[in-house]
Amino acid sequence: MKLEIEKQLPQEIVLFLRTAGDKAVENGYKLYLVGGTVRDLLLKRPSLDIDLVLEGNAIKFARQLTAGTGGKLTIHQQFGTANFRQGEFTIDIVTARSETYAHPGALPTVQPAKIKDDLSRRDFSVNAMAVDLSPATFGQLLDFHGGTTDLDKKLIRILHKKSFNDDATRIFRAIRFEQRLGFNIEDGTERLLRKNIAMLNTISGDRLRNELELLSMEERPEKALARADGLGVLRQINSSLKINQWLADRFAEARRRHISSPAVYFALLSYDLSRDNAEAISERLNLSGDWKRIVLGVAKINDGIHKLADPAISPSTVYRFLKRYPVEAVSACFLSNESQIVCSQIERYLKELQYIQIRLNGDELKRMGVETGPRLGRILKALQDAKLDGLVRTREDERAFVQQWLQTHQ
Predict the structure, then answer these.
(1) Angle at CA 108, nearest 5°, toward 105 and 110?
(2) Going from the N-terminus, what domains does the chain have, and what CATH number goes with each?
(3) Local structure of residue 199 (DSSP, 8 states)
(4) Helix %, strand %, coil % of the chain (to 5)
(5) What's this model's pTM, rounded to 2 decimal places?
């Protein structure tokens, strides 16, 4: 079976693929288009995520190719891969390889191999196809694992029984592809998936977090997360993690309000967690920096959010309470809280208060006679609060406020 690549890919990419295929043969290699691009070509879906596999030294070949085409090359020596950029598109070139796993959850040990071995190490049949780019056989499909049949049947099927045991992150990928493509996980694959759920315990927190991020980047992540929940995947990470219709509606609302992002989705997923569970999930996923502040921030905001239910609360108090937390955590609480008063206070913060700034700075206050030290900080805070509460508006108002403050705080 031959694919009509010319009709589905941009002309400049087709020209590059033909040039690369010619160059490979000239140097005694064989070059293939592989993976998701092949799947999407067969499904007639747009795809510019181009991955090439070479039976030979990918880095050496990439340098030869760059010399002949003038593209920009980035080498990843430790992985034996190269990234080629020309014009508006980028292409990854890797050496065909086989993989073995020292133990479940380990990163694979790789060694050079033929294309058939390379395809056999992949996750699912629909991602285990290749297209020959040699001049004489350009466009010829290689399908050793029934990928085209599974595409016709709309099935996600693993290639061997130890697949989830070797690498349990494939559980997430099965869900992601199933939901993205509108397919079904094949019955035998689902049985093995459920049987190997506990193998997620062999996966590092960093890799689990990455898979959750990828789920959150899908068009409708709540669908993938609901499927993961139904299969027991979320509970395996933490027994308190779950998704229901109420939470799915919050995801949709985030998109409707144009405040959706993987971080906001993750904050929503964390919304009902106690602080102890938030801490436990942060530890399990090895969260640090912004991600940890987001998850823990949701729990901390919820601990004190009752303060915002006071209709008489000042804007500066709202600001001081919410400013301590990442905007994604604040957004999640806005989307999830049932109180109209609370939501209006948070919405005002998100749309207005967080952007209000005073015009005077520390240097100007020094020129007004304020010495460097704690007193300077107190004046700046008082001035910021006055600006938030509408007591000052112009630079002249601010100067007058500072002068008055200095007179009353001798």
Answers:
(1) 175
(2) 5-153 (3.30.460.10), 160-236 (1.10.110.30), 244-355 (no CATH), 362-408 (no CATH)
(3) G
(4) 60, 15, 30
(5) 0.86
- Taking only Cα atoms into account, the Rg of the chain, rounded to an integer number of angstroms, comes to 28
pLDDT of residue 184: 98
Beta carbons of 268 and 247 less than 8 angstroms apart: yes
Residues 146 and 92: their CA atoms lie apart, in Å, by 25
Distance from the Cα of residue 40 to its chain's centroid = 21
Q: Which of 56, 130, 149, 131 is nearest to 94 (CA)?
A: 56
**Do residues 164 and 202 touch, judged by C-beta distance below 8 A?**
no
Phi, psi of 177 (to 5 degrees): -70, -35
Give the CA angle between residues 303, 305, 309 to the nearest 5°. 145
Residues 189 and 160: beta-carbon distance below 8 Å: no
Pairing assessment for the beta strands 97-100 and 141-143 based on DSSP bridges: unpaired
Average pLDDT in the 290-316 region?
Answer: 93
Q: Is the pLDDT of residue 102 over 60?
A: no
